[in-house]
Description:
Elements: H1 2-10, H2 14-24, H3 33-45, H4 55-74, H5 81-94
Helix pairs in contact: 1-2, 2-3, 2-4
Amino acid sequence: MALYATHLIKEGNSEKAMDLYVKHGTPANPANYNIYKRIFGDMLKAKDLMRADSYRTWADLRDMLLDLVIVLLLCQHLYNKALDGFLMNLHEVCHL
């Protein structure tokens, strides 16, 4: 799934990559952290998502990240400093 998500991201379709993880779950594999970070960054940069009718997309992004956090809480040995920094950045952006 990560290879397909990477392919979608390279084609400029981070939203479809996010949909994969929403549908199938967000594994807490440290090798995937850059994929999640890229999806998050691309969603923040998307100008067409700043409308009221984009709620579903933002909710899906929230659900993907929440799924990741829940899995990490269950498997704390996978939690690392790089992800901690990513989650702190996410927290700061969400409170702007």
